[in-house]
Amino acid sequence: MKNTIEKITSIPGVRGAAVITKDGLLIDKVFYDNESSEVVGAMVAQISREMENSLGKATDEIPILATIYSSNGEIVFLSQSDFIIAVLCEKKTNIGVITIKIKDIAVELKEQLKK
User: Fold this and answer.
1) Which of 53, 60, 68, 75 lies 20 to 30 Å from 100 when distance is taken between CA atoms?
2) CA distances from 35 to 7, 42, 65, 97, 100 (A)
């Protein structure tokens, strides 16, 4: 799983990526700052739950994709039915590339979690 996550961390400006349970527990991560990973995981899971309560549950066919912008950087996350992928980025990171890559990685992770 770590090899799959590392594919997105090779993009310039990405400071870390994690696969998270819907409850906010880290399944696997590649972060340059280990303290950030747990905070990001918990925060993204909470936001994902709130979005699902408002918009409906994420499914594999229709995942929830969101970007959180701040003055320090951005968090892009994709919430599937079973897991969440979160990517912590610098402000100047190409979010379009992140979005494409995160969707590809979700397909790979879904297959890995089935095994």
Assistant:
1) 53
2) 21, 12, 24, 26, 27
Describe the strand order of the beta sheet including 64-69 as a list of residue ranges.
Answer: 26-31, 14-20, 84-89, 74-79, 64-69
| 87 closest CA partner among 72, 70, 66 | 66
For residue 37, give the nearest of 18, 24, 21, 22 by alpha carbon. Answer: 18
CA angle, corner 31, sides to 56 and 97, nearest 5? Answer: 60
pTM, full prediction: 0.88
* Contact in structure between 17 and 44 (CB atoms under 8 Å): no
Structural domain boundaries enclosing 54: 2-114
Q: What is the CATH number of the domain that holds 66?
A: 3.30.450.30
Q: Look at the chain and report how many structural domains it folds into.
A: 1
Report yes or no: 30 and 15 within 8 Å, Cβ to Cβ: no
